[in-house]
Design a protein that fits this description.
HIT family, subunit A, 9-stranded antiparallel sheet, alpha+beta, globular, homodimer
Chain lengths: ~325, ~325
């Protein structure tokens, strides 16, 4: 059972999804449900000998169409809605042990095009209000399957945090006639201290306002609001940037760096797509926790200077 | 060095505090900086033989008065402010190994009064816009000192999340003539399924809209917006509720349950103080992580039903 419950203090929905308590939790490598099904073996989510990039519905979805019946009835203040929507898994390769840093750029180019296809399909479905492509990488951030993969959530509402973001972008456009991302990237480029690498049509930057120590944003140099609006050159540039950043991340501390990757995009002219990476490490052996100030008040404390972490990542 | 940097997409400040990278990290029990100083021993933060409840400035503060100079200059879009404010530590007892569940209620009554005193003092200081009392408990949530203690942050701005909260409370009061907390608690009490315990002038409830599996809110039964407005009876009731909840939490899985405790209060008539507990566990051996959907989009997924977790906590 699953439903959306209204959080009247945060003005946001909370998704309950009790069946997810039983989701697959670190199966042995031989029983990975995201690997291709082996001849005579147990049936995985990919019933074929191998695949390039695979996208399919999450077996333990938080959002589902048609939705299940809510577990509670709710009331005037205790609002309930069915948790309609879509949760998909995107496998980056059929190779169980690969990372983005290992993959050839041509494979990442395919992945980026699968993201684009899935984005266009999902956003056009009735009732879908926001499509969010993301990756949780590493045990430290909570993944339960190690096979290289990301996820896509098609929410039936626009989360409060996204609303704030778009309102800020809309206000900036109204005041300045330029997108917020364009003005911010211009300032970062002029300053230069927080640029990690800059190439062709994309820039990788530790933002001036980084909330996490090794946070990096991949920003297109043109006002492309979403994957749909990008041409082949932009999409290829994104693939190259992902490979370059993943390689530097894995070199940083000498182990595959865990992170959350968030693709913020919205089919609206006032925005520009940004791919944000937020790794949970603050040194090679210390994690960045979201506790009292962050989880309680939303007030982030960054123990590092963005100028210094950018220099570290640039030097690799 | 430390400063506030403006996050133009989130419309919020981010605090940088680089000196915190060197903060004390799990010292041996014999070298706890929060224990009373022993005769002939190293000097701790409490230069006396023992203490009841002790409050003092954090040695590795994120906010400080007078503030240090910012590390960067900033610009028109890359806004910078000094990170003026106060960070205090509140030790609950001089006993290094105690937990709130162990403490006698009379000790917790003292603690609550220290919170009240510190709140009144800090909120009256120039430049302080929001005072946040919280506790990070347990290694799993990131504490670096195990001595029982909480913290107080006096921010020089109102965090975006708190602004959303107060706007929602203000709107509700305008529409209904009653505080949001009053109406919500009335609905919870009438329904009853999510009440953990109810006594005298406080109620402990797993909210209908819980974001974390074992989230519990301690709510006063009267419209008391902050600790300052509470009389002795209300303060004593809070102390009793803290003891009762901590005891149930520690019984739940048979180990001291880690949590973040957040005291939301604001000296304004449209609000009611709420003490929120958000433990990071979803089962006795699995953690609740804030990853893609939560950290990226702010969209929380709760793998449990609030009605069921309330029943579990009620039965202990």
């Amino acid at each position: 059972m699953s439903e959306l419950r209204w959080h009247p203090f945060h003005q946001d929905w909370v998704i309950t999804a009790t069946h997810r308590q039983d989701r697959t939790f670190f199966p042995p490598d031989d029983y990975c449900p995201l690997c291709p099904t082996k001849a005579g073996g147990f049936p995985t989510e990919a019933p074929r000998e191998s695949y390039d990039v695979a996208a399919f519905e999450n077996k333990f979805p938080s959002l589902k169409t048609p939705p299940t019946d809510p577990a509670v009835e709710g009331g005037a203040l205790l609002l309930v809605r069915p948790s309609v929507g879509v949760c998909e898994v995107v496998c980056y390769t059929s190779d169980h042990d690969a990372t983005i840093a290992d993959l050839p750029v041509r494979q990442i180019k395919k992945l980026v095009r699968v993201w684009r296809d899935r984005y266009i399909d999902l956003k056009s479905r009735p009732g879908v209000e926001y499509v969010f492509i993301f990756e949780n990488k590493g045990r430290e951030i909570g993944v339960t399957l190690t096979h290289p993969h990301g996820q896509i959530y098609a929410y039936p509402y626009v989360p409060q945090m996204i609303q704030t973001r778009h309102q800020a972008e809309l206000t900036h456009l109204g005041m300045h006639g330029r997108t917020l991302a364009a003005d911010w990237l211009r300032d970062e480029t002029e300053d230069g201290r927080r640029i990690v690498f800059d190439y062709k049509n994309w820039t990788a930057v530790v933002p001036f306002f980084a909330r996490y120590p090794f946070e990096v944003h991949l920003v297109p140099k043109a006002d492309t609001p979403d994957l749909e609006s990008m041409n082949d050159e932009m999409l290829d540039g994104l693939a190259e940037g992902l490979k370059e950043l993943a390689t530097r991340y894995d070199k940083l501390f000498g182990f595959p760096l865990p992170y959350v990757m968030s693709i913020f995009q919205y089919s609206a002219v006032h925005t520009r797509l940004i791919v944000e990476f937020t790794p949970p490490y603050r040194t090679k052996d210390k994690l960045k926790y979201l506790a009292g100030s962050e989880a309680g008040c939303g007030a982030f404390i960054n123990d590092t200077l963005p100028e210094e972490t950018a220099a570290q990542l640039r030097a690799l």
